[in-house]
Specification:
The chain is mainly beta. The chain folds into six domains: 89 residues, no CATH class; 87 residues, Immunoglobulin-like, CATH 2.60.40; 91 residues, no CATH class; 93 residues, Immunoglobulin-like, CATH 2.60.40; 83 residues, Immunoglobulin-like; 127 residues, no CATH class. Helix content is 3%, strand content 52%. The chain contains four helices and 58 strands. Strands 4-1-9-6-7 form a five-stranded mixed beta sheet, with no helix packed on it. The longest helix has 7 residues. The relative contact order is 0.05.
């Protein structure tokens, strides 16, 4: 391991009153004294930055720190981080207490109710005024006061300090309180009848005509013939003027305001009429774009257009399978093509050139040009795979979401109590979220294994189980065979899971609520008892029971069925018999005799 170079540096810090401040070097408090202090810091990792020196005021104290480097003194942060090139800097710490609040700022104002002041530095206090002369106490050299109009959007006419007029900064006047006393004179209101002239025009009137949609002065509309008059129009001094423009239909290029250029216009431009204003707007209509979009099956795709006003993708309306003529604005000429919940996109070409996705699933983004020909070929999803979804108690579910696809293009799956069959295509991704009445997430299992997240990518004949009533553990299903071989009967559980030879011999595990179906092969008759209780076969010859806890299933062979007699005696009469030789009306799963011939109806695979 390589060693680290300390690169120690001595930093000079002058402190006027050590009792007023605390100093930490690299987060450790160090002893200090009045006058010059030398603190040693290092750059252990050769980054070009030395360890920090932090200076903080003690209770009831205030401080400011200045840095002198190369003959220039500037106010700096109280957290000193020396970097290379500033090793020669000297820092001075100046502190004050409330006993030093001796300065007096006398404020005279013509309209006290409309003046607001914010002190910054040691008090950080806001002031409102009720009389024409008010005194504000401050610590000289440490405080500043900002004066502004009390009504948002309004401006003060003037502020002078000791007879000297101040310049405004974004409609605020800043007064630095460095002297022992300061006299501030504030004129809220402009002289009666004072006006300013506003002149609006277009750089190219033919191209931009119609861009300005309205002009308002203090919320009141100005007539078009007035605001576009060559001579301009007069407004009261300081009034708020707002110019509105149609940036959906027009392209805003730039605007000059009293000779200064701006490239930004967010639908309106507001200003207070403090000076005469001359505005020249450069804008033009967005071009109309016409293109051809051919889609073999419109149900398989989602075509969207980026909306610059809402900053979202919105569907392109009115499309159909086959050839479509689309009309777009130059402002919103980008479309995105992606698969829908019914199909996927195979290929996209623009003017014969193959397009590609920026990333899988992002869709094909095309900047449409006038006269462009776009061809989209798709493939419909074939949902031939089966997912069995089991829900223990839907009445205990506060809300659930069972979807595939993304937020604006999804397939919503509805499920109920017990078993539900969901068809899907290979690779389809589901996002599943269930919460019970206590708003706790439900427990989900895929093929008896706890599902760690909400994303489910099933395979054919997977079983997804959802329990809103709490975590579950698997229970065993064990078989006892009497006078019967394992190949003489079948066992299917959870609708699609078929037990193999080892399962019948050694047993298998299921989650509570699992349905188990036992059925003999043709020519075999059986009895089935669950935990000693014999159960009756249904019309299809199946023995069906539900497992909620560990069970023992006894399967006994009791003799040949009448199936052979049925084959011989009932041939050609159109009747249906199950494997037990009992006549039935309909077939579900299992072995049947129809017109004297064996017919096997398989369970779901």
């Amino acid at each position: 391991m390589m060693g680290l170079t300390a690169n120690a540096l001595d930093v000079k810090v002058n402190i006027d009153n050590a009792a007023n401040v605390t100093v930490k070097v690299n987060n450790e408090v160090v002893s200090i004294h009045n006058g010059e202090n030398i603190f040693s810091v290092s750059d252990p990792f050769n980054t070009g930055f030395y360890q920090s020196i932090s200076i903080s005021p003690n209770d009831g104290c205030y401080l400011k720190v200045t840095k002198t480097l190369n003959g220039a003194t500037t106010e700096t942060s109280s957290s000193i981080s020396v970097k290379k090139g500033e090793e020669a800097a000297v820092y001075d710490v100046i502190s004050r207490t409330e006993a030093d609040r001796t300065g007096v700022c006398r404020v005279t104002v013509d309209d006290p109710a409309l003046l607001k002041a914010d002190a910054h530095g040691t008090s950080n206090q806001s002031y409102t005024f009720s009389q024409q002369t008010t005194e504000i106490r401050y610590i000289p050299g440490f405080d500043q006061i900002q004066f502004k109009h009390a009504v948002s959007g309004k401006v003060l006419y003037s502020v002078s300090v000791d007879g000297n007029m101040l310049n405004r900064t974004y409609n605020t006047f800043y007064v630095s309180l460095n002297e022992a006393s300061v006299n501030v004179d504030v004129k809220v209101n402009a002289p009666a009848g004072l006006t300013r002239k506003v002149m609006l025009s277009y750089a190219d009137p033919a191209a931009a005509e119609g861009f300005i949609t309205a002009v308002k002065v203090e919320g009141e509309d100005v007539a078009k013939e007035k605001y576009l008059a060559a001579a301009g129009f007069d407004v009261p001094w300081g009034s708020m003027v707002t110019v509105y423009g149609n940036i959906q239909k027009y392209k805003f290029n730039k605007m000059t305001v009293n000779g200064g250029q701006t490239d930004y216009f967010a639908g309106h431009y507001s200003f207070n009429a403090i000076d005469d204003m001359t505005m020249v707007i450069d804008a033009e209509l967005y071009a109309e774009i016409n293109a051809t979009l051919t889609i073999d099956d419109v149900n398989n795709v989602l075509v969207t257009q980026f909306d610059t006003q809402s900053y979202s993708e919105i569907p392109l309306e009115g499309l159909s399978s086959g050839r479509n003529t689309i009309e777009l604005s130059e402002k919103q000429s980008t479309i995105t093509i992606k698969g829908s919940q019914y199909g996927t996109v195979v290929s996209v070409t623009a003017n014969g050139v193959a397009q590609s996705e920026a990333s899988p699933g992002a869709g094909y983004s095309i900047d449409v040009k006038d006269g462009m020909t776009i061809v989209v070929r798709t493939k419909k999803y074939v949902r031939d795979q089966t997912l069995i979804v089991y829900v223990d108690d839907i009445s205990n579910v506060n809300y659930y979401s069972f979807r595939s696809g993304d937020y604006d293009n999804y397939r919503d799956v509805r499920v109920g109590n017990g078993y539900n069959e969901v068809k899907f295509y290979e690779g389809e991704v589901f996002h599943v979220s269930f919460a019970n009445l206590a708003e706790e997430p439900a427990f989900m299992y895929v093929n008896n294994s706890l599902q760690p997240g909400n994303q489910v990518i099933p395979r054919n004949n997977d079983v997804l189980k959802i329990y809103s009533t709490g975590d579950k553990s698997v229970v065993s299903v064990d078989f006892v065979l009497e006078d019967i071989e394992v190949n003489e009967f079948s066992v299917v559980y959870d609708k699609v899971k078929e037990a193999d030879k080892e399962d019948k011999e050694d047993g298998f595990y299921v989650l509570p609520g699992a349905e188990v179906v036992v059925m003999p092969i043709p020519s075999v008759k059986i009895k089935v008892a669950v935990d000693g209780n014999e159960i009756t076969a249904n019309e299809a010859g199946q023995f069906v029971f539900v497992v909620n806890e560990a069970v023992e299933v006894k399967v006994t062979k009791v003799g040949e069925t009448a199936i052979n007699d049925v084959e011989a005696e009932q041939a050609g009469d159109g009747k249906i018999f199950n494997a037990m030789g009992v006549e039935v009306k309909t077939m579900s799963r299992g072995l049947y005799i129809v017109n004297g011939k064996k017919v096997v109806v398989n369970p779901i695979r």
